[in-house]
Design goal:
The protein is α/β, with parallel strands linked by helices. The chain folds into two domains: 6-54, Orthogonal Bundle (Helicase, Ruva Protein, domain 3), CATH 1.10.8; 77-208, Dna Topoisomerase Vi A Subunit, Chain: A, domain 2, CATH 3.40.1360. Helices cover 45% and strands 13% of the residues. It has nine helices and seven strands; from the N terminus they run αααββαβαβαβαβαβα. The strands form two sheets. It has a five-stranded mixed beta sheet. A two-stranded antiparallel sheet has the order 1-2. Helix 1 packs across helix 2 and helix 5 crosses helix 8. The protein starts with 5 loop residues before the first helix and ends with a helix.
Length: 209
């Protein structure tokens, strides 16, 4: 692309760094901002800046937070006997949208993937062990995407917690194997949470398939 303005070119370059945004889409965004009032643009850029500089991560579950603890962990109305283990913050948002789960969460920050250099040390697994030990939680719900890497992570954590006495369940296979949790529709995800299985049943089904 040939630009008549260096400022527009720089703005397009920055927008095109976002995932899924090509140069043409970035240009449309920039031109839209040119048609927007300066006050609105200042509000837009200010919100992004405040988010990036002010965002924190919950000391308990590693979800995004505005304070030391996220709104979910700080909510006294949540069921503190359940912890739903998810891969990313987007999965927390997806499950919360179903309005079918009232417990707590634990964000791993990824899943085990040796080929990508992601081992247990790169994930928030140690802090999960500490929560199980210190809080007396009775159930761990494994809500990871049903992929090979996701299943490997489920098996690893289940083995690590085998002697803890906590019940370990996993979401039902309403989500197709190989699918991504964040792309599941809310009804399917809600059904998977409601019909979760004991981890022993899950392992038997997976090993026989």
């Amino acid at each position: 692309m040939i630009f008549s303005s260096k400022l527009i070119e720089e703005a397009v370059q920055e927008f095109s760094k976002l995932p899924g945004i090509g140069k043409k889409t970035a240009l449309r965004m920039v031109l839209q901002l040119l048609r927007t009032s300066k006050n609105e643009v200042d509000g837009f850029t200010g919100a992004i800046s405040r988010m990036r500089h002010g965002i924190r991560f919950c000391v308990d579950c590693h979800n995004v937070a505005d304070a030391e603890r996220c709104d979910i962990c700080a909510n006294p109305g949540r069921n503190r006997n359940q912890i739903c283990v998810v891969e990313t913050i987007r999965d927390v948002i997806a499950i919360e949208s179903t309005q079918q789960y009232s417990g707590l969460y634990h964000v791993l920050g990824g899943i085990l993937s040796p080929l990508d250099g992601i081992g247990p040390e790169q994930l928030n697994i140690t802090s999960l062990h500490a929560r199980v030990k210190d809080t007396g939680v009775s159930e761990i719900i494994m809500a990871l995407s049903p992929t090979i890497e996701g299943d490997t992570t489920v098996y690893y954590i289940a083995r690590q917690l085998a002697d803890s006495g906590v019940s370990i369940t996993t979401i039902a296979r309403g989500i197709a194997f190989g699918g991504e949790l964040e792309y599941a529709d809310e009804m399917t995800l809600a059904r998977s949470i409601a019909k979760r299985l004991p981890i022993d049943n899950y392992v038997k089904v997976a090993s026989s398939s």
